[in-house]
Amino acid sequence: MDLGLLWLRNILIWGVMYVCWEGRGQSLSSQLNYYRTAIRFYEVDVTSKEAVAHVLESIKEEVGPVDLLINNAGLGVFDLAENIVEESVHDMIDINLKGTIFCTQEVLPSMKIRNEGVIVNVVSTAGVEGKVNETVYCASKFGVRGFTESLSLELNETGIRVFGAYMGGMKSTFWDGILSEERIKDFMNPDDVADIIIENTKPRKNITVTEVIIKNKS
Fold it and tell me: In the Cβ-directed half-sphere of 170, how many Cα atoms lie within 13 Å?
């Protein structure tokens, strides 16, 4: 199961309305019929600021303000630096970095008015250390890390919390067509990763968690 579906399972026990932003070509709604009464689905192209703004306006009108934003959209193309084609470069920067920025920009004004909210940026350890065959992917994720850390400083005197999650490889469909089942058999269970991240988003008195790094056991 992918992280997006696991957020759903973990968060719904809080008794909230969960809004799922499906990316281009995705169809999570067909996998989530069991939870349908507590979910609203909206298709959005996170690479378009205009599209993000339009969808968020619909969410505000139909559901209400966003209290918790999880930026989880991501794409990876892995190869030697000189072999990564221009389209893949644009896709990784547009989805991984600009998508995170655009979605965050749209929820911030409302969160600032209410002086509350949580923004979770799901980044990857590719935003912490360089990796072979991941030059552009790492560049996009290091960008998200810089955005996350800077935003946390900007909001330090507010009631809005910003949290960066940096995790290693998980057994998920992210690797379809990239790595074989044999290669990912010892990767982390995404269920465990989701549990750790969600636990760290919960408000706790006199504690602020700004980031967590989750690595595969060597």
Answer: 21
Separation of first and last alpha carbons in the chain: 23
Domain spans, the chain: 3-204
- The DSSP annotation for 57-77 comes to HHHHHHT---SEEEE------
Using an 8 Å Cβ cutoff, are 180 and 164 in contact?
no
Measured CA to CA, the distance from residue 172 to residue 177 in angstroms comes to 11
> CA 104, CA 174: separation in Å to the nearest integer?
23
Element containing residue 160 per DSSP (H, E): strand 160-167
Q: Is 36 helix (H, G, I), strand (E, B) or coil?
A: helix
Query: What pTM did the predictor assign?
Result: 0.84
Q: What is the dihedral of CA 125, 128, 133, 139, to 10 degrees?
A: 120
Q: Which two tokens stand for residue 114?
A: 């209410």
Query: In CATH terms, is domain 3-204 a member of 3.90.380.10?
Result: no
Residue 59, both tokens: 């969410």
Helix, strand and coil percent figures for the chain, each rounded to 5: 50, 15, 35
Query: 99-114 and 135-154 are packed helices; what angle lies between their axes, rounded to 10 degrees?
Result: 10
- pLDDT tens for each residue of 48-72: 999 999 999 999 998 889 999 999 8
Counting Cα atoms < 13 Å in the Cβ hemisphere of 149 gives 9
Which active-site residues does the annotation give?
137
